[in-house]
Model the fold of this input.
Amino acid sequence: MVASSLHAPQEPASPKSHRPLRTFLAVLGPGLVVMLADTDVGSVITAAQSGAQWGYKLLMLQIVLMPILYVVQELTVRLGIFTGKGHGELIRESFGPFWAYVSVTGLSIASAGALLTEFSGLAGVSELFGLPRYTGVLLGALALWLIVMTGSYRRVERIALIFGSFEVVFFGIAWAAQPDWQSVLSGLGQVELQNQSYMTLVAANIGAVIMPWMIFYQQSAVADKGLGVEEYKPARWDTALGSVITQLIMAAVLIATAATIGLQNPNAPLNTVQQLSEAIIPFLGDSWGRVVFSLGIVGAGMIAAIVATLAAAWGWGEVTGFKHSLEHHPKEAPWFYGTYTLVLLAGAMAVVTIPNLVSLDIAVEVMNAFLLPLVLGFLIALAVRTLPREHRLRGWYFWVVLLLGSLSAGLGVYGGITSIPGL
Done:
C-alpha cells in the first residue's frame, strides 16, 4: 500500500495556486531596485567605517533600520498605487508649484551628490586596475545613458537588478574575513551612546538609509510600471524583501571590516574607494580580492546611479507637467530624457575634472541630512491628505510613522552638523 501510494499519479496543481507567485514576480522590481540602490558606494564606505572604528557595536543598528526603511518606502508604494501619480506631481497638486519646485530642487542636489559618490566609486575601480580614473567614469556614464535611452521601464528595471545582484559579493567578502562569531554576537548588545564619534556614525548610517531620491524614484517607478490596487500587497512584500537584503549587505560590509581592518588598523582612513580597497584587499588576497571587491563597488555604483538620475528626471517631469515616462520614445519626451542626460553628464564631468572629492562628498552628506525633515515631512503629509480613507495614514500607525520620521530626520540633521569640519 505504501509503495503504491508513493508511485500514484499526482493531481496537477491548480493554476490558481501559482497565481500569487506569478503576481509577486510580475510586481517585483521597484522596491528591490531602490533598496539595492540604497546600498550605494557612500553607504558601503559608511558601513566600512562603522566596522573598522567600532567593531560590531553598530551592527544592531543595521537590523533596527530594516523596519524603519520599510515604513518610509512603503508609503511611496501606497501613494504610487492609490493615486497613480509620482511624488513631485502629488506635491504640486497638494501644496502648490512653489513647494513642488523647492522639493525637486532639493532632489536635484541630492541626486547630483549621489552621482558624485557613485562615479567616484567607478573612478576608484579604474585606478585599482591601473587605468585612468576617467575610463570607468565615462564607460559607466555611457552605459547608463544607453540603458535608459534604448529601453522601456521593465528593461531598465531588469538591467538595474542585474547590477544590484553584484552586491551579493559582499556576503562572500564577510565570510572570507573569518570573523569571530562569538564577538559578532556579543557586539550586538554593545553601544556607546555617550561617545560623540559613535553617535556621528549612528547618524551617518541613518542618513545612508533614507535618501530623497529613493522616495521620488519608488513612487514614480510604481506609477510608471502601472501597478494597480490588486498588486498593493505583493508590492509591499517587494519593498520588505529589499529592506532586509540591503541592510544585510550593510551588515556584511561592517562585519568584513570589523574582522580585518578593525583588528589590525582601526584608524585607517576609509573616505574613498581607493582607501577602502587598499585596507581590505590584503586580507582577501590580491589575486581574487581585487576582482570581487570591484564587482561589489561597480554593482552598488551603477544601480544607485540609475535610480538617482531617473529620480531627478521623473521629479522635474512631474513638477513641470512634461511627459516623463520610460514608455515614451526620446522624441516624445525630450525634456525627460534631456534632464536625465544633463544630470548624468554633470556628475561624470565633475568626477573627471575634480581630483579630490572627499570635501565635496562631506558637503553632499550635510545637504542630504538637512533635506530629510523636508522630504519626510512631505511624504507623511501626502500619506495623510491624498490617499483614499481606508489607506490613509491615521490612528496609532500615524504616530509610529511620525515618531520614526522625526527620529530619523533629527539624527540625520545632527549627523550633518557634526560632519561639518570645525564643528
Remarks:
- The longest helix spans residues 286-320.
- The mean pLDDT is 84.
- The chain has one domain: 29-180+192-418.
- DSSP finds 20 helices and no strands in the chain.
